[in-house]
Specification:
The chain is mainly α and about 55 residues long. It has 1 helix and no strands. It has one domain. The radius of gyration is 14 Å and the shape is flat.
């Protein structure tokens, strides 16, 4: 679990299935779900987290 709070940062999330079968398609699917233009926020950053096990922890 994580917690993020800020008046200066906006956070968006997206999920995709099929990473093991086709990682490139899964990343493209996630990227397509995220907003491209956010008024007042000229910089965008992306972080990718993958869980490759049946249980992550």
């Amino acid at each position: 679990m994580g917690l993020l709070t800020s008046d200066d940062i906006k956070v968006f999330t997206a999920l995709a299935e099929g990473v093991k079968e086709d990682p490139e398609a899964a990343v493209k699917e996630v990227a397509a779900k995220l907003p491209r233009d956010i008024e007042g926020y000229p910089l965008l950053n992306g972080n990718l987290y993958g869980c490759w096990f049946s249980r992550c922890w």
